[in-house]
Design a protein that fits this description.
The structure holds three protein chains of three kinds. Chain B is α/β, with parallel strands linked by helices. Chain B contains nine helices and 20 strands. In chain B, helix 8 packs antiparallel against helix 9. Chain C has a ten-stranded mixed β-sheet. A six-stranded parallel beta barrel of chain C has the order 13-15-18-21-19-16. Chain C has 14 helices and 24 strands. Classes of the chains: A alpha/beta, B alpha/beta, C alpha/beta. Chain C: This is Fe-S cluster assembly protein SufB.
Chain lengths: 252, 433, 494
């Protein structure tokens, strides 16, 4: 399997603040699902923000190659159009902007970049209906403004729905399980599982083991104090469940 | 130079002040300059934007003049001590009573002051420590402030050295029967804390024209309750200027019920980073009363916060005016300012003007304002009546609930909150129609 | 920092400072061309003879000349208003020409007689005056500098008894209507600019919709200032008789010129019992260049009177152009149960200044009004909402809801909110809310993470911010307005 994402010695800090990532090494191949776990403050969300190009972070060392390109050299919107998708921990509300309109603008921006024809309204609607069915989402969400007035669960489902529409090569799910009750978690997980694809890599960032019961990863990594301190296959997660993160203090 | 003749009625009083006070030469020079300035400015007119809703006619027609000093302390025609009782904080307080703008020692009561605290009448301060007040009398462009600086006879100075916390509240009673041009100077050093209650009252339709100058050092905290309760024939004009350094906090609460005509102008400059200004207040008016509460908050520092909640209750043929300006200077990023003015009109003749303004010149800000005008909620009234409460009581309950919020939300120390609530109930018993 | 270290570049990732501060001057004002037509101009200057000249040129009856002269004499005693938050260089009212007309004798009788250069101009502006307009279902009156050059669909409208013509024609053909309503909503001496307009107005549009008639198509006027050193002073009068309905659109452009040009229009609306008028404006006068050179001074008085019971007047405006905008479309809510509305989007970029808002005067019982204002400041723009809600002592049951939101883009602009609320009746309910905020970095990043460029993201967020107002515009105008918003903000992100 080819390497989709290669992270080497990545160091980053919050702009003018402390260093949060202290040398991350990570390889993710197409078709793989990786879980990155770790205690609060370990740098999990910083990693996803830096990969997506969120303002307010400064990369102080290391490289990130994505499909052979220098990911860090690209502006955030270009990364997105090149197929990097971030499912936000806190999806942002954009009042007055219709969800469908937003999604079509995003989808067509990506298609333009790839030299594909833009979808017209009919084609777009057709694609939307297919994904809705796939993810078992009601279409009422689509008529509303982006994330405005959505419940926590609806917001997370909307993120996965966008992922289904935008068909990224690399999807980073930032604490997608947080704040979900068990039914919502199951629904979101089912959606993600349906989107597993030999051409697509998924990086899940989570604090909790329980997500991994629903989305079974190929690799599990433990992030502590800005470094990946332990990695293993899916059985490793179960081991972590028993022992907790406590021993990591020594490992790190 | 074009002079108005608005200063003419005050010339004699001015000469009398100059003749009776013994004070540094610089102050006399200052007084003359301020008198000239008042002559130049004249009383504000409704053509001036800031005064377009305020009808000064009751004052300008026959401005009360300062009475000559009382013959002896505590004697003469001063108020009987018992008459003040309902307005006072329970002990312990440092109480200073000003009768017609002059310190009345017999009515006042203080305790020992901690070290690092200066609390004294202005006249005394000018005698003993004139340096403390040098430069404190240039009062900007306002006509009333100019007149005050020209004519003032006394007032109160409270100064705290850095780090000093004055636990006992300072209580200032302005008892006005003729005309009082009093001053209030408060300067808190870095980290100092104080609580001040100012109550304006009086009899016989006088005019209190006060100027307050407040300066709060870094991290200083001033809690300032103002109760304005003159008789319904009185006039009241007050200007308060406050300057806040880094992390300083000015917690103000204003309760306005008195006077035929009253106007309170507050200008708060949040100069330091992280300074905070909170104002909670209410004007409750009846009869022919007109009151204006004008508040300008200038945000200059980074990350300053302002919260203003002002309630109005207008009965009879009264007229309430709220003028609020929140200004954010270029570069004052992180400003978070909220301003709310809510009004209840209780009678067909009552009127309210509200003008909550925003002037924003920085982009990283969160500013909002809201204003509402309405009457008592019919559904609530009916609900209370359906539970057996008579309409009058129901009405009173709802008005009280509406207004008391301004006191509760101010977060005053218990004794002050109790005093303010007592005053509110007194108004409801006597005033609400 | 090692060689391989890459900061998350401000240019791409930081909407706060770098993204919003960097200036890329893009396409700019696309209506800035000049049409080469022969015109007949009044000599510069303004005195009673100028007023007589204009009136004579238009062959007006004596009463109208007298009306103009009365206004002129009134104007001479007045001073320009100074209360708005606007920095206006002194205007030399004697330097401008007060009349400029394309030379075509007494005005075209049909489209065939219209100068082809003018038709081309309107084509370029996207305002087809010919048959293609039929497809759009919009009847158009085009005002070029001072005079109306073409009105389409007159015959079809006439079948329904609807009068839609140039103001000049209305004076000739329907003097009784003009006389009854002219100045009845905006009196001659209402304000400095209204008085000036009353003295020297040259043309404009007139609409009368008879009782019970629902106007079947959008009526539209397109204003264009072309000549140099001219002011434009058009006058619009729109009367909806009992139970009538009309929706009216107004668009404005001007060529790019270095000197400031004055536009002082007056619009009067009258709605009788159960009538409804919707009036929409997309104002895109030349705003001046990025240094504030040139641009239109847009000093406009617009007012509607809801005379009859249950009548409705709604103003919707998208103000993206002009160097200076001074404009307060207002409603006099006289009729019992009448309704007023004001929906506004105002953008100031570069050195533009806008002081705009509304007055809702509640006079009758059970009147209600809604005010939604969205102000967007970018560059060094200064944007002020100024609005008055007044409830008079007989307006039992009056209701007002006002919401003004301001959005700041960049560090050098200003957003100001100046509401005046004056209530003299306890049965009234007035609510006012205002917020000021900047473009949210989180929103920008969210959009960019989904692949939108910074400019597209900004445009999307701003359009969302304005949604409640854009919803009030007729469909074809709303699309145009969205594009204009995007164009107006060009250069505010880089």
């Amino acid at each position: 399997m080819s390497k989709l994402l290669e992270i080497r010695g990545l160091r980053a800090r919050i702009a003018n603040g402390r260093e949060v990532l202290k040398g991350i090494d990570l390889d993710v191949a197409a078709g793989e699902v990786h879980a990155i776990m770790g205690p609060n403050g370990a740098g999990k969300s910083t990693l996803s923000s830096v990969l997506a190009g969120k303002p307010g972070y400064e990369v102080t060392g290391g490289t990130v190659r994505y499909l052979g390109q220098d990911l860090l050299a690209m502006p955030a919107d270009e990364r997105a159009r090149e197929g990097v998708f971030l499912a936000f921990q806190y999806p942002v509300e954009i009042p007055g902007v219709n969800n469908m309109y937003f999604l079509r603008a995003a989808l067509n921006a990506g298609r333009r970049q790839r030299g594909q024809a833009e979808l017209d309204a009919q084609q777009f609607l057709k694609a939307v209906r297919e994904r809705l069915k796939l993810l078992d989402i009601g279409d009422d969400l689509l008529r509303r403004a982006v994330n405005v007035g959505f419940s926590g669960g609806e917001k997370k489902r909307n993120e996965i729905f966008q992922m289904a529409m935008l068909e990224p090569n690399l999807a980073i799910l930032d604490e997608t399980d947080s704040g979900l009750d068990i039914d919502a978690l199951r629904a979101v997980s089912d959606g993600v599982n349906r989107l597993r694809d030999p051409a697509r890599a998924i990086v899940m960032i989570t604090h909790y083991q329980r997500l991994l019961d629903y989305i079974v990863p190929d690799r599990v990594h433990v992030l502590a104090d800005g470094r990946i301190v332990a990695s293993g296959d899916k059985t490793f997660a179960a081991e972590l469940e028993r022992t907790g993160y406590a021993y990591l203090g020594d490992a790190a | 130079m074009l002079m108005t003749d608005d200063s003419a009625p005050f010339r004699d009083a001015f000469d009398q002040v100059l003749a009776t006070v013994a004070e540094p030469a610089w102050l006399t020079t200052r007084r003359r300059a301020e008198m000239d300035r008042f002559a130049l400015l004249g009383f504000p007119t409704r053509r001036q934007e800031a005064w377009r809703f305020t009808d000064l006619e009751p004052l300008i027609a026959a401005p009360p003049l300062p009475a000559p000093p009382l013959p002896a302390a505590g004697g003469g025609d001063g108020p009987a001590p018992a008459s003040l009782a309902p307005w006072l904080l329970p002990a312990p307080t440092h109480r200073l009573v000003l009768v017609d703008g002059r310190f009345a020692p017999a009515l006042s009561a203080g305790g020992a002051l901690p070290t690092g605290v200066w609390l004294a009448p202005v006249a005394e301060t000018l005698r003993r420590r004139p340096d403390m007040l040098e430069g404190a009398f240039g009062d900007g462009e306002e006509a009333f402030a100019a007149l005050n600086a020209a004519l003032f006879t006394d007032g109160v100075v409270l100064a705290l050295e850095p780090g000093v916390v004055l636990e006992t509240p300072v209580e200032i009673i302005h008892h006005t029967m003729s005309a009082a041009h009093a001053r209030l100077h408060i300067a808190l050093g870095a980290g100092a804390q104080a609580t001040v209650v100012e109550t304006a009252m009086g009899t016989g339709g006088g005019w209190g024209n006060t100027v307050g100058v407040i300066s709060l050092g870094a991290g200083a905290v001033l809690t300032h309750l103002h109760i304005q309760a003159e008789d319904p024939a009185a006039c009241h004009t007050a200007a308060v200027r406050a300057a806040l350094a880094d992390q300083a906090r000015y917690e103000a609460c204003a309760l306005i019920t008195g006077g035929r005509l009253s106007r309170r102008d507050m200008a708060v400059t949040l100069a330091g980073d992280g300074a905070q200004f909170r104002l909670h207040g209410a004007y409750l008016l009846d009869g022919e009363q007109e009151a204006t509460l004008s508040v300008r908050a200038d945000h200059l520092g980074l990350g300053c916060r302002t919260e203003e909640v002002v309630k109005g209750v207008l009965a009879g043929a009264s007229h309430g005016v709220f003028l609020g300006t929140v200004a954010v200077a270029p570069g004052a990023d992180g400003t978070d300012a909220r301003q709310l003015n809510r009004n209840l009109l209780l009678s067909p003749q009552a009127r309210v003007d509200t003008k909550p303004e925003l002037e924003i010149l920085a982009d990283d800000v969160k500013c909002s304002h809201g204003a509402t005008v309405g009457s008592l909620d019919e559904a609530s009234l009916f609900y209370l009546q359906a539970r057996g409460i008579d309409p009058e009581t129901a009405r009173r309950m709802l008005v009280e609930a509406f207004a008391v919020d301004a006191i509760d939300a101010a977060g005053l120390p218990d004794a002050l909150a109790a005093l303010a609530r007592r005053h509110l109930r007194r108004w409801l018993d006597g005033g609400a129609s | 920092m090692s060689d391989s270290a890459t900061a998350n570049r401000p240019a791409s990732n930081a909407p706060s400072a770098g993204l919003l501060e960097g200036i890329v001057q893009a396409e700019g004002y696309k209506y800035g061309f000049i049409t080469d037509v022969e015109t007949e101009d009044a000599p510069p200057g303004l005195n009673e003879d100028t007023v007589r000249f204009i009136s004579a040129k238009k062959g007006e009856p004596a009463w109208l000349l007298e009306w103009r002269l009365k206004a002129f004499r009134r104007w001479q005693t007045m001073a320009p208003p100074d209360w708005a938050k606007l920095d206006i260089a002194p205007i030399d009212y004697q330097a401008a020409s007060y009349y400029s007309a394309p030379k075509a004798a007494s005005g075209p009788k049909s489209l065939d007689e219209v100068d082809p250069e003018l038709l081309k101009t309107y084509e370029k502006l996207g305002i087809p005056l010919g048959e293609r307009a039929a497809l759009a279902g919009v009847a158009v009156d085009a005002v070029f500098d001072s005079v109306s050059v073409a009105t389409t669909f007159k015959d079809k409208l006439a079948d329904l008894g609807i009068i839609f013509c140039s103001f000049g024609e209305a004076v000739r053909e329907h003097p009784e209507l003009v006389r009854r309503y002219l100045g009845s909503v905006v009196p001659q001496g209402d304000n400095f600019f209204a008085a000036l307009n009353s003295a020297v107005f040259s043309d404009g549009s007139f609409v009368y919709v008879p009782a019970g008639v629902r106007c079947p198509m959008e009526l539209s006027t397109y204003f264009r200032i072309n000549a140099a050193k001219t002011g434009q002073f058009e006058r619009t009068l729109l009367v909806a008789d009992r139970g009538a309905y009309v929706s009216y659109l107004e668009g404005c452009t001007a060529p790019q010129r270095d000197e400031n040009q004055l536009h002082a229009a007056v619009v009067e609306l009258v709605a009788l019992e159960d009538a409804e008028i919707k009036y929409a404006t997309v104002q895109n006068w030349y705003p001046g260049d990025e240094n504030g050179k040139g641009g239109i001074y847009n000093f406009v008085t617009k007012r509607g009177a809801c005379r009859g019971a249950r009548s409705k007047i709604s103003w919707a405006q998208v103000e993206t152009g002009s160097a200076i905008t001074w404009k307060y479309p207002s409603c006099l809510l006289e009729g019992e149960g009448s309704t007023g509305a004001f929906y506004s989007v105002a953008i100031t970029n570069n050195r533009q200044q806008a002081d705009t808002g509304t007055k809702m005067i509640h006079i009758g019982r059970d009147t209600s009004s809604t005010v939604i204002s969205k102000g967007i400041s970018a560059g060094r723009g200064q944007n002020t909402y100024r609005g008055q809600v007044k409830v008079l002592s007989n307006a039992d049951g009056a209701r007002n809801y006002t919401q003004c939101d301001s959005l700041l883009i960049g560090k050098r602009c200003g957003a100001h909110t100046v509401p005046y609320i004056d209530v003299r009746h306890p049965g009234a309910k007035v609510e006012h809310e205002a917020t000021t905020s900047k473009i949210s970095e989180d929103q920008m990043f969210y959009c960019q993470q989904r692949g939108l460029t910074a400019e597209d993201a900004l445009s999307l967020i701003v359009n969302g911010f304005c949604k409640e107002v854009l919803n009030e515009l007729p469909m074809e105008f709303a699309v145009e307005a969205q594009k204009l918003l995007a164009v107006s903000l060009e250069g505010s992100v880089g």
